[in-house]
Amino acid sequence: VTAWSRQTKLTDPNEPYLYDTIYQANVALSTSGPDYSGYRFYSNLDENIKSFKADFSRGFKISENLKQEIKVGGFAQTRDREFYTRQLGLTHISYMFKNSLLYLPEDQIFAQQNMGLNIPSEAGYPDSTGFKLSELTKPTDKYSATSKLFAGYLMLDTKYKEWFRVIYGVRFENFFQKVNAERIKGVPLVIERKNLDFLPSINLIFSLNEKQNIRASYSKTVNRPEFRELAP
Fold it and tell me: Are 111 and 130 within 8 A, CB to CB?
């Protein structure tokens, strides 16, 4: 990240201080961050997902006008995730920092010769200091998580002649989710969620003709948070 700024109001517009008229890099004095130049962010995510699904259906002809189809199925999924980030930032080493470094072009400002102590200064001044690399990673910058989902459903599809059809059934989901993380001060944080949900649905379809249907439906669904929404 490289962020630049300059003065918009000058003390004396007629004879402005030269460095107030040009852009300079915003490098933090001691603690860097996403809003400062020289900020680096690295992340790594490892996730393994395993799943299994099976569906079965069977149709029956109850009478000349009434047909029935039964569908059953199951689904299983496990997820395991490891996520961590590392944050680094360039800051001033000391009050002897060589301020002219802040006015260098983007492709020169963080060159190797501008890092560390004993940076050559302007004539008549003692040697100055340059940039240093600071570790900004916090305990909250990593987490591990796992989830398990076991689901099954039963669905019935009933057709009466050509003008009426009803599709109805229920799905159940047994869900477990766990996130292991840390708070700002390194205090362990464990979040566990266990849910057993029954999700019914029904659709009534009336066919007026080959091109027009009237449908009435009801269903219940569930939305669960992602790992990243639970982790700090």
Answer: no
**Residue 104 neighbours by CB distance under 10 Å:** 14
User: Region 38-56: what's the mean pLDDT?
Assistant: 96
| Cβ–Cβ under 8 Å, residues 59 and 156 | no
12: its two tokens: 């004396």
Q: b/e per residue, 125-159, with b = 16+ CB within 10 A?
A: eeebbbbbeeebeeebbbbbbebebbbebebebbb
Highest mean pLDDT out of 65-69, 107-111, 118-122: 65-69
Helix (H) or strand (E) run with residue 229 in it: helix 227-230
pLDDT of residue 168: 97
CA distance 35 to 54: 50
Residues 181 and 231: beta-carbon distance below 8 Å:
yes
Residue 31 pLDDT grade (very low, low, confident, very high; cuts 50, 70, 90)? confident
Q: How far is CA 45 from CA 9, 139, 203, 207, 224, in A?
A: 45, 16, 41, 50, 20
Residues 6+ apart with CB under 8 A from 144: 81, 82, 83, 179, 180, 181
Question: For residue 33, what are its two tokens?
Answer: 């961050």
Q: How far apart are CA 116 and CA 94, in angstroms?
A: 10
- Residue 66 is inside which H or E element, if any? strand 66-92
pLDDT digit string (tens) for 140-189?
Answer: 999 999 999 999 999 999 999 989 999 999 999 999 999 999 998 889 99
